Amino acid sequence: MGLWQSLLGRSTPRPARLDALFAVPTAALTLESTLGLHATGTASLCLRAASGPAFDRTRADILALLDADPRMPAVQVSHDRFGFTWFTLARPEAATGELCADLHVAHLLLEEQGFATGLLCSVVAFDDGSGHPLGLVYLYKQGTFYPFSPTGPQTRDTLREVQVAQAVAGDLPVEDDRQRWLALWGAPGL
Asked: Structure pTM?
């Protein structure tokens, strides 16, 4: 950052490391073999609420691209109680690589159309077979992952989250700062 930019309080954002999403299928295998967690085939992408013609066109482009295969469930767009926009994708459970590729494409389309500053995170959903969900959360601006394990409307299993983070540390860039391990209450797919 140059002197002039620092005086004005401006900073250049770090470029996102979207290729980290392609490591999720390997982490999914690790989670399955070590902790008995299976990918559910659901993932979601969260961004700050956006509106207007440019966002409407971008949303239509994402839906057209990701809904091109009529055998796959349609991409859902929703808004949570905090005003964030969620794109939710569903694919066969064994297609974690395809799911992550779809997330990557959606991120790129939003970036190209000027919505990069609003991108917050993506969540790939896992389950242990007993209905206990877990999300691997990709922090867009950090390029890192953390686990989120909700156990109720406002409770989470932090011990399980630490176990998952340790299990996938060799596969994914895990977020070191636990203050960034935010609770995503009501995230689609969890």
From this structure: 0.88
